[in-house]
Design goal:
The complex is a heterodimer of chains A (321) and B (91). Chain A is an alpha/beta fold. Chain A has ten helices and ten strands. The chains are: A alpha/beta (321), B alpha+beta (91).
Chain lengths: 321, 91
């Protein structure tokens, strides 16, 4: 691929890289899909383009509108890149406690940032965006008079569909011998789309979700009904779901760099920890996992350079999924 | 079996402000019953009146989501850590 019309043509078709040297069992291979190779630097470029394209086709998104979206960063950055090229304004509701680089990238791509309280985590960003979208729909005062399009990654079928049509087929094309797919759980779009696709091809493929203990970070809930499960999440697609804590995530993020020369983000370390756990329970198999983004947006956390206790403490206070 | 139960901020006021409590039982359901026996204000907070896990709460046995084990019938062993966390978004 030497000439493309725009960077949008560079979204997807990411490489799958063997990192079996990190497998705890010699009979179990581990392959990682490098989503940091997308032009916006993360897997979320896929759903950003898919949601905008679908909304344009269906008439939900029209020229001159402002796209509103809650995001802990990567979806916002993907949307910002797409909006730059397609001419939409973008307003991202962003928790205050994301890494400084996520905020900087949004600003660089021209997104307007609305901050939501750190103590409410991503749930607070979702609630605030829903409120702003509701006010826009009813002509409320808090919208700046803009014509708002609310694409809402957590409930938009174009999110898992981007993975059902893209990420899943790419994995099957490159590795039809896959036995386990392990991925981080955020909106659940990657797991839903890839999981459904792979299980249709081979019902024996196991789908594992890993997640950070993000609920520990969220102290601002009034009650458990303020909890949040994305509308696109279907629990039946998963076979197993486990927490990977910040220390283990950082340790595996470092091992990816030290032993596989892969510079990936902290959630990728969590995914690798999940893949290693799956491998440790098998005699043979092929585990595919997604490294959602590169390490660039986490340099300020000192993840590779500072004493691990300090980094774990820092990572425990930021949203990195 | 005696297990350590870690509570999220939103539930601590129902357990005398404690972040970690100890409870007994052979299954998660028995552990939850023991928690309610110790702290009656926990009734209905994690397990609904219908006997299922609250929709917006995730419970983990040693960091494994019990919805993918045996739900409330998940067995526990001495020294296990049960973590109760509100469901939250990422992305």
């Amino acid at each position: 691929m030497a000439l493309v019309r725009s960077v949008l043509d560079l979204i997807g078709d990411t490489p799958l890289v063997e990192v079996s040297q990190l497998s705890p069992r010699p009979g179990v291979r581990i392959l990682v899909k490098l989503e940091g190779q997308n032009p916006g630097g993360s897997v979320k470029d896929r759903i950003a383009l898919a949601m905008v394209t679908e909304a344009e086709a269906s008439g939900r998104l029209r020229p001159g509108q402002t796209i509103l979206e809650p995001s802990s960063g990567n979806t916002g950055i993907g949307l910002a890149l797409v909006c730059r090229l397609k001419g939409y304004r973008l307003r991202i509701v962003l928790p205050e406690n994301v890494s400084v680089e996520r905020r900087q990238l949004l600003e660089i791509f021209g997104a307007e940032i609305v901050s939501s309280p750190a103590e409410e985590g991503s749930n607070g960003a979702v609630r605030m965006a829903q409120r702003l979208a509701g006010e826009a729909a009813t002509g409320g005062d808090d919208t700046g008079g803009d014509d708002i399009a609310f694409l809402y990654q957590y409930g938009n079928p174009a999110n898992p569909d981007a993975h059902y049509r893209g990420t899943g087929p790419e994995i099957w094309r490159d590795c039809p011998e896959v036995t386990h797919f392990v991925s981080g759980l955020g909106t659940s779009g990657t797991l839903m789309g890839v999981g459904r696709y792979l299980k249709e091809r081979n019902p024996d493929v196991r789908i594992w979700a890993v997640e950070p203990p993000a609920g520990e970070l969220v102290s601002g809930l009034r009650n458990l009904d303020d909890g949040f499960v994305p509308e696109v999440f279907d629990p039946d697609v998963l076979d197993r779901k486990l927490i990977v804590r910040p220390r283990e995530s950082i340790e595996w993020t470092r091992r990816l760099t030290a032993e596989a020369a892969i510079f990936a983000g902290i959630s990728s370390g969590a995914a690798m920890a999940g893949a290693a756990k799956a491998a440790s329970e098998l005699d043979e198999g092929v585990i595919v996992t997604v490294l959602a983004d590169g390490g660039w947006k986490y340099l300020s956390t000192g993840a590779w350079t500072d004493p691990i206790d300090e980094v774990v403490e820092r990572a425990s206070r930021i949203v990195y999924f | 079996m005696s297990v350590e139960v870690r509570l999220p901020t939103v539930l601590r006021e129902n357990a005398a402000g404690q972040a970690t409590i100890t409870a007994n039982g052979g299954t998660l359901a028995e552990v939850m019953d023991d928690i309610v026996r110790q702290f009656p204000l926990m009734a209905g907070r994690v397990v609904t009146d219908e006997g299922t896990l609250h929709k917006f709460v995730n419970v983990y046995r040693n960091d494994e989501d019990v919805r993918y084990l045996s739900q409330l019938e998940t067995t526990v062993s001495d020294g296990d850590v049960i973590s109760i966390l509100p469901a939250v978004a990422g992305g």
